[in-house]
Amino acid sequence: MGDMDRNRRMVAIAKQNLIESGEREQLIQLLRTRLLECGWRDQVVMQCKDVVRDVGVENITLDKLIAEVTPKARQSVPDSVKRELLQKIKTSVSNQSSFSTSPFNHN
């Protein structure tokens, strides 16, 4: 198995473990809270309004709006929010890894 396939498999397993443990939902809620606290959501709403105004309400589709706003919205997520979430994900995955290598885990 190549490194790329192995990495994809590990990511899929980690994601599944986060889902099963309920941690994924907690991380999503934390992200929502942090984005609201820093005003990111309001910025994205304003970007959407600007795009609709520039393109015209009769010419805009949801797909066009998403295509236009998504790159800017992703770039505008504060680094502090990204770092906090990444650290929490790393901690969760690390905890999963230590459990999966435990001699008591027979998987």
TrEMBL record:
Q: Which GO terms describe its biological process?
A: chromatin organization; mRNA export from nucleus; protein transport; transcription elongation by RNA polymerase II
Q: Which GO terms describe its molecular function?
A: transcription coactivator activity
Keyword Membrane applies? no
- Cellular compartments annotated: Nucleus, Nucleoplasm
Keywords of the record, alphabetical order, are: Activator, Chromatin regulator, mRNA transport, Nucleus, Protein transport, Transcription, Transcription regulation, Translocation, Transport
Signal peptide range in chain numbering:
none
For this protein, the record's InterPro entries field holds: TF_ENY2, TF_EnY2_sf
List cellular component terms (GO): DUBm complex; nuclear pore; nucleoplasm; SAGA complex; transcription export complex 2
One Pfam entry name: EnY2
Query: Which residue spans traverse the membrane?
Result: none
Keyword check for Transport: yes
Q: Which family does it belong to?
A: Belongs to the ENY2 family.
What is the annotated quaternary arrangement, including any partners? Component of the nuclear pore complex (NPC)-associated TREX-2 complex (transcription and export complex 2). Component of the SAGA transcription coactivator-HAT complex. Within the SAGA complex, participates to a subcomplex of SAGA called the DUB module (deubiquitination module).
Q: What does this protein do?
A: Involved in mRNA export coupled transcription activation by association with both the TREX-2 and the SAGA complexes. The transcription regulatory histone acetylation (HAT) complex SAGA is a multiprotein complex that activates transcription by remodeling chromatin and mediating histone acetylation and deubiquitination. Within the SAGA complex, participates to a subcomplex that specifically deubiquitinates histones. The SAGA complex is recruited to specific gene promoters by activators, where it is required for transcription.
Instruction: Report the protein name in the record.
Output: Transcription and mRNA export factor ENY2
Organism, per UniProt? Oppiella nova
